[in-house]
Amino acid sequence: MIATTSVDLNAKIPNNVGLADDPKLQRALEKWLPNYLEWWHDMGPTDFEDKPVFLRTAISVERGGWANYAHVRMPDYRWGIFLEPNKTDPTIKCGDDAGAPAWQDVPGEHRNALRRIIVTQADTEPASVEQQRLLGHMAPSLYDLRNLFQVNVEEGRHLWAMVYLLHKYFGRDGRDEADELLLRRSGDEDKPRILGAFNQPCDHWLSFFAFTMFTDRDGKYQLAALAESGFDPLARTTRFMLTEEAHHLFVGETGLGRIIQRSAELQKIDSNGDVRAQGGIDFDLIQRTINYWYTYSLDLFGGEISSNASTFFASGLKGRFREDNYEDHKAIEGMYRMPVVESGKLTEQDVPMRNAMNEVLRDSYVKDCERALGKWNKLLEEAGSPTRLTLPSRRFHRHQGIYAGQFFTPGGELISEDQYRASEDKWLLVPEDNDYLVSLMKPVYEPGKFANWIAAPRKGIDGQPIDFEYVRMD
Amino acid sequence: MQQPASDVSTHLSSDASNDSLPPPVHFEVDPSAYKHWKVSFDGPIARVAMDVDPDGGIRDGYELKLNSYDLGVDIELADVVRRMRFEHPEVRVVVLTSANDRAFCAGANINMLSQSTHAWKVNFCKFTNETRCEIEDATEASHQVWVAACNGTTAGGGYELALACKEIYLQDDGNSAVSLPEVPLLGVLPGTGGLTRLVDKRMVRRDRADVFSTTAEGIRGKKAVDWNLVDGVFPRSKFDEKVLERVQKVVAEASDDLPAGERKGVELPPLAPEVTDSTRTYKYVSLSLDPVTRVAELTIEGPSADDVALLKKGAEAVHAAGADVWTLRAYRELDDALLHLRVNEQQVGLVLLRAKGDAQTLLDHDAALIAARDHWFVREIVLHMARVLRRLDNTSRSFFALGDAGTAWAGNFLELAMAADRFYLLDDSDNPVKVGLSELNEGGLPMLHGLTRLQTHFIGYPQQLDELIGSRELIDPEDADEAGLVTVLLDEIDWDDDVRIAIEERASLSPDALTGMEQNLRFAGPETPDSKIYARLSAWQNWIFIRPNATGPEGALTLYGRPERPQFDWKRV
């Protein structure tokens, strides 16, 4: 019985980790897989299980192997396990032991920290699927519906990738943690997901695009930092995940871009420049959405001054974004100057570089977000719109780190709680925004057609035309 | 790096006007001025919510994040525990919880510890241990059961605080865990009773305790229950409701066999001693310090005939007199003086104890007190005396009881002589000094290890003990010496010189060696979990605190939160 299942497993699960010859891994997956499928059925996209979706499936790590397109029903999706091959002998990239050979097994000394890192990363993957499960019912087009499902199945695969590490390298504890990943639920009062942003509701497509733009972008930087890990299987796993993550960011960045473009068009059409009067999404609402999701995503990088961040870097478990571009991989010296609140005033403090590693990673992220904002503003300029969008200060609306519990304007100015509460609804999403967006977003399932509030993309997926039947609805 | 505690513990003066020294620590607090605790009452249930003000540290240089604590936080907690017993006798269950939405309690503040001197750390740990023992004492002796409602991360000292409670409930949210991360993260011990209570109180299997104490992230959910680390876990949405359900049952259990007396609280007013550079004068207790000889004189005045008359009127009259009753007032003063000595007057090595008064009045006092002891308030007074005497046993100074003219060593004052390291008694027929036993010497004021001070004193001489027990006669110095109660009996001609020499000799010996020696000699006999905490856990912790692996330049405690990683000397010692 077990032997047959193992053969089935290997055929079903594309992998380059020697699953066929690894009874320990087979045993773990045999138990976990049915639970995963049950979770997918319960918490994955609702009501689309029988619809063939034009999905990309990774079947090997060879060139092009990661991108095989075909119409697939989601429950039949082949979730695989892949490690990016090493081109050279892997080394520890950062910290006290930078330059030494990388670990092929978990060093006992770092076992708990690594497990925590992996579990925290893993927890975000099913969380986002849960957050997005109702969105199929208000998709603005088949093209977007397909992108949603592509994101969903790949988040599922990323969960697999992390569960593989837990199963393979962390023994019984790892299996227990893998089971718990399927038990927590986004937004559940009793069993919430670990990180705050992954418990926020994602009720409509504006939030979905903002989520994939800002929150998944945090994921990119976390994965990039883990791709520098001295624990080689983790580094290789995350490097492969990054190729898929790029598509999620593309969905978010172009999705918001297309809304902005459409809103600029509607602004022009309307005699009063009133986007909402034309059935679109007004720029104030877009700005509030940016403010909301960007700041929740900033929280995900952790505290500005963090002994965990220091330990992770010092131990070589987690590096900086593109660690290769730095000259000093030990970072034992040097300070990071950051604004802090002291006795009710904003002042500057020098923090040892290693303790500021979360902030260093956040810097790379902020720069990337600023680039996207620049692109959107250029789009607005070209469309002849007077509107410009901005990124709020990284101190604004924070729930983690040194700015949590303090009150700032989106410009980063320290204000009183009363002042903040008086303007909060101008800066952040309010329930009425949700009502409006939900009322606006009626599904469009006709190939080539798009909802009024969003522009069509420039091109289709994998060279297919825009009016391709990306999801077969009959 | 700041050294918040380096100076306070060495000065000999209580004068706060000197700018270069941090102010002395005050152990008396007023509930209206609590910075870190919110206490509320609902009939028989009190809720004590930890809500530490991050900027409210007792010293500068660290931030009390995530409900982490320092000495100031614990001084307030000790006050909560004490006042709960005296001022709120209607309370049967105290729910210890957190008002911080992210943590129940993250334990002792690490930056505070790594910045502190050794002496500050030791005094901090000792005081916090005493507070936790007081919580257990309230649970066991006062029908006031403490229950921990851990509504978030419960780490290190946070879990130790929970361990001091009779029952522990943990929020089950997939995240909140109980943990003792000291060994893996800081290279020190969970030194506020953590290890001892784990195996001796909760009787967690030692192999599991080993795994638990080396797993920094701790254990949560069902496993925490299976391992008996907590008594139950409840989902977050039902946490308050389920805890309350359980608490109501505990209220019912704790309401059986209540001591007599109207459950009307007795307020504890400030002691307000008169303070100069070298003296601290209370109503019954006085402390004076000599910075040159490093000797302190601690004198306590016994009860008057009026005080005894009040006791004889019975429990209700005692209750009505409240905090003015000699027994409560005098021992509160003694407690405060001891705490002041420990933390603010660290240079003092030898304390000369004098118990002044009339011996027969003391015996009458004790007899009247015992007679009224069915009343909850009188009972609390005796329990309080016992705790203060235990604080004395645990104070790392040499104590000589000096039985010169005007002193009396009967009943509860004989405990002071038995708590002291030596008892010098004057044998002078012109100034007779009397010695005698009351029922309090034969139980009621036990030491930490469960024996009375007389049992400990006569551990190798049970027959001598038997001869004394039960007698309520006052005896002369010579007979007291004969009975084995006196260390050195001196006549009036020898007294001055012999005592002076003994004092000078004592003051010249290594303070570290004396501390170790005294603590080893004071507690002959068996161990209890409480005594293990001080004798074993604290001793190990104090050793670890001075080892380079913890506090050296590359030690784990020194480097916690800093960019460098610790470097251990791997040699086992």
Give an account of the 3D structure.
The complex is a heterodimer of chains A (474) and B (573). Chain A is mainly α and 474 residues long. Chain A has a single domain (19-440), classed as Ribonucleotide Reductase, subunit A (Orthogonal Bundle), CATH 1.10.620.20. In chain A, 47% of the residues lie in helices and 6% in strands. Chain A is built from twelve helices and four strands. In chain A, the strands form two sheets. In chain A, strands 1-2 form a two-stranded antiparallel ribbon. In chain A, a hairpin with a 2-residue loop joins strand 3 (335-342) and strand 4. In chain A, helix 3 runs antiparallel to helix 4, helix 3 (111-131) runs parallel beside helix 5 and helix 6 runs parallel beside helix 8 (283-299). The two termini of chain A are 37 Å apart. Chain B has 573 residues and is α/β, with parallel strands linked by helices. Chain B folds into two domains: 31-254, 2-enoyl-CoA Hydratase, Chain A, domain 1 (Alpha-Beta Complex); 276-522, 2-enoyl-CoA Hydratase, Chain A, domain 1, CATH 3.90.226. In chain B, strands 13-14-15-16-17-18-20-22 form an eight-stranded mixed sheet, with helices on both faces. A six-stranded mixed sheet of chain B has the order 1-2-4-7-9-12, sandwiched between helices. In chain B, helix 1 runs parallel beside helix 3 (118-141), helix 6 runs antiparallel to helix 21 (529-546) and helix 12 (326-344) runs parallel beside helix 14 (376-393). Residues 1-19 of chain B have low confidence and may be disordered. Classes of the chains: A mainly alpha (474), B alpha/beta (573).
